[in-house]
């Protein structure tokens, strides 16, 4: 994740500015919390990676991250416990959203700005009741728009390409209440991307229900 952040110019530039003592009030987020330290240490680490000819150890960033989120500091007799990569990325992105609500060169904070402006897209979900008669299905389709910050790529024996896994994850069967049938029923939910974010995060899911 850190390597990916480093390759996003507008994110890296603002993280380095934040970490190197820039005017943090310009980012419109909280200014005195453990989350601030996480973002500041991340920015300082990225600056070191760009300017040091020696190997850079992420000790300061890891310490701040574990202090802010103690679940990632759990230890066993063998050392630090293994952590889920997606959980840590999700927590880090949440922290960045809270602290970097707005980038200084953005005109306002309406809509998707700051971190959300980089990673959040729009999804259209179409939900159809499988148990309705065919002549009633089209008239009772439910369409919703919602934001998304990542896509899942389901990996199974039939997955040969990234597009296969993404397509599989965009369609699913769900059970929910049908007001027409006045009982729970099986619905098909199909997601379609309405607007891609500038940078798309894909989670590879090897095990899923």
UniProtKB/TrEMBL annotation:
Domain (USP): residue spans on this chain: 1-209
Protein name: ubiquitinyl hydrolase 1
EC number: 3.4.19.12
Cross-referenced InterPro entries: Papain-like_cys_pep_sf, Peptidase_C19_UCH, UBP14-like, USP
Annotated catalysed reactions: Thiol-dependent hydrolysis of ester, thioester, amide, peptide and isopeptide bonds formed by the C-terminal Gly of ubiquitin (a 76-residue protein attached to proteins as an intracellular targeting signal)
Any one GO BP annotation for this protein: protein deubiquitination
Pfam families (alphabetical): UCH (PF00443)
Alphabetized UniProt keyword annotations: Hydrolase, Protease, Thiol protease, Ubl conjugation pathway
């Amino acid at each position: 994740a850190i390597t990916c952040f480093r390759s996003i110019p507008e994110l890296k530039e603002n993280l380095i500015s934040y970490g190197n003592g820039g005017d943090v009030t310009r980012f419109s987020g909280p200014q005195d919390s453990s989350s601030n330290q996480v973002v500041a240490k991340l920015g300082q680490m990225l600056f070191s990676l760009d300017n040091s000819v020696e190997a850079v150890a992420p000790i300061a960033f890891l310490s701040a991250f574990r202090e802010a989120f103690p679940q990632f500091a759990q230890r066993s007799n063998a050392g630090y416990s293994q952590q889920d990569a997606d959980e840590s990325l999700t927590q880090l992105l949440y922290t960045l959203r809270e602290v970097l609500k707005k980038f200084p060169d953005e005109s306002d904070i309406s809509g998707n700005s700051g971190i959300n402006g980089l990673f959040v897209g729009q999804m259209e979900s179409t939900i159809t009741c499988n148990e309705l008669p065919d002549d009633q299905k089209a008239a009772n389709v439910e369409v919703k728009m919602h934001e998304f910050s990542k896509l899942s790529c389901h990996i199974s024996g039939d997955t040969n390409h990234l597009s296969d896994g993404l397509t599989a994850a965009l369609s699913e069967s769900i059970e929910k209440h049908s007001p027409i049938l006045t009982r729970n029923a099986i619905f098909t939910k199909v997601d379609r991307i309405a607007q891609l974010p500038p940078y798309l995060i894909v989670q590879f899911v090897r095990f899923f229900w």
